[in-house]
Amino acid sequence: MKITEKEVRHIARLANLELSEDAITQYSKDMEEILTYVDKLNELNTDNIEPMTQVIYDGSETSTMRTDTLGSSFEQDKALREAPLAGAGHFKVPKVIER
Amino acid sequence: MDNYKTLTIDEIQQGLCSGSFSAKELAQEALRVSEAENGQYGAFLHFCPERAIAAAEQVDADLAAGNELGPLAGVPVAIKDVIMTEGLRTTCGSRILENYVAHYNATAVERLEEAGGVIFGKTNCDEFAMGSSNENSAFGPVRNPVAPERVPGGSSGGSAAAVAGGFAPVSLGTDTGGSIRQPASFCGVVGVKPTYGRVSRYGLVAFASSLDNIGPFGRTVKDTATVLDVIAGHDANDSTSANVEVADYSGALDGDVKGLKIGVPKEYFADGLDAEVRAHIESGLKLLESQGCEIVEINLPHTEYAVATYYLICTAEASANLARYDGVRYTRRFDDPETLDEMYAKTRGDGFGAEVTRRIILGTYVLSAGYYDAYYRKAQKVRALIAADFKKAFQDVDAIVTPVSPFPAFELRAKVSDPLEMYLSDIYTLTCSLAGNTGVSVPCGKTSEGLPIGLQILADHFNEATMLKLGDAFERAGGFAIA
């Protein structure tokens, strides 16, 4: 399965990863080797098999939901404590909206 | 204290009750010995002496007051650094979380401390639990205490080394594709992967949410069973936590395994298995037979597809779970970004190591438009087939015995150049992970070079009691030291 450096750049953009040129070359090689290997799954006919989305047992969509009542959570200052930049009760980031 | 390095939980409780030592002395010894030798093995990333002494003093106070002691009272415990411990750094072996301090305890940690456990340090691991050698930590590799020029295995290399080196009688690790069982086998200790959902994942920094497990390391099967007694059980904070009653694991170890049927899958004994490992597993099976077990050949026909299935699913899940490390909330941010996108891309590009980056790339690709059905969905279907193989086998047998790794501990840096080769070596452990089953690695002797070999016992969902009973019977019959 040939993976081009262009494809790796695209993936890196999707994953928000800035990579060096050397890294892009290395990962293209790695991806090619791994994707060629995983191609062996196509030896199996899985047309009538349901994907395994739950590990232990099937449950309804709401089987682990609780009633919608207010519970306890972390205080705001605790939640903000590990932020690189915070202020006025919010995480601070570079400008998002262009004027 | 000259016997700290070999104390079991029972011996600790006896020593405390008889007054041979106090919990505080034990905690101080744990810290002293571990700090003194950490330069050699790198098992620990940081120590927490204040927390440890405070917990130990509480145990001593309870003892003096005649209060009832918890099952882990005074027992020093080391915790893998992907598990949240309130007030302590939790780095996941990554630069991106190098200074991150947890603001809550994982449920497993809460339960350990409620039972009297004395947490004294966080152990080194492969970055975000991704790796099989503990060479992917941003803070240096861990060395195997049995053979220091070799790896301890991974990703829970630090937790395995902590027990193997005598620094902690028990430790917590995590197992997603074998990350407890394989280092247990490389280091010659016991390592348990519980059934998926048996132990709450609340407070476990997520790698692959449908595969992650917290589990114990110990020097004896009984010690790991005692820890499992404490940490297992339903938790409302983890929606994948199983609402299944917790059996009495340490109480199940009565040594009576007569009549238990053990399946041996021929697919696990094909080419690529080191001859000495094979010989030891075969001797192990003979030993179990001598204890009254019936050995039966079984098939797990989809085994050859397991590595491909695992590395598609776990990387896809990892790419989603690690998206949160973007410079917004968790300490590390690229200096002075001009735009939001630059902040994301440079924080992540700089903060993640090579293996983590590789897996995020693979996972993102596998989930991307046009490829999702061919890769991720296909892998989930094959996963169903692999799980069905085990369900079918467990209709006929009580447990399955296999090797843990195709080879014993290899030299540091021997396998860093070929990621696929490293992935393929997980073949015996990741099948169980895909099916959600429980598995234990117990020591099974050493190679002619003195390297530990692990024997894996697998059991059906929530059948840890049978699995641990077999492991304990194996231990009692001398299995750990099979020549």
Structural class computed from helices and strand pairing of chain A: mainly alpha
Give the ordered list of helices and strands of chain A.
HHHEE
What is the first-to-last residue Cα distance of chain A? 44 Å
The number of helical runs of chain B is: 15
Number of domains of chain B: 3
Name the CATH superfamily assignment of the domain at 1-43 in chain A.
Answer: Glu-tRNAGln amidotransferase C subunit, N-terminal domain
Based on helices, strands and strand pairing, what is the structural class of chain B? Answer: alpha/beta
Going by CATH, the architecture of the largest domain in chain B would be Alpha-Beta Complex
Largest interface, counted by CB within 8 Å of the partner chain's CB: A-B, 47 and 69 residues
What integer is the average pLDDT of chain B?
Answer: 97
Describe this structure in words.
- The complex is a heterodimer of chains A (99) and B (483).
- By secondary structure, chain A is mainly alpha-helical.
- Chain A has a domain at 1-43: Histone, subunit A.
- Chain A has 3 helices and 2 strands.
- Chain A has helices spanning 5-14, 21-38, 76-80, and strands at residues 86-87, 90-91.
- Chain A has a two-stranded antiparallel sheet with strand order 1-2.
- Chain A starts with a helix and ends in an 8-residue tail after the last strand.
- The model of chain A has no long low-confidence stretch (mean pLDDT 90).
- By secondary structure, chain B is an alpha/beta fold.
- Helix content of chain B is 39%, strand content 13%.
- Chain B has 15 helices and 11 strands.
- Chain B has an 11-stranded mixed β-sheet with strand order 1-3-2-4-6-5-10-11-9-7-8, sandwiched between helices.
- In chain B, strand 10 (438-446) and strand 11 (452-459) form a beta hairpin.
- In chain B, helix 9 (306-321) packs across helix 11 (354-367), helix 9 (306-321) crosses helix 12 and helix 12 (373-396) packs across helix 14 (427-435).
- Classes of the chains: A mainly alpha (99), B alpha/beta (483).
- The interface between A and B is large, with 47 and 69 residues.
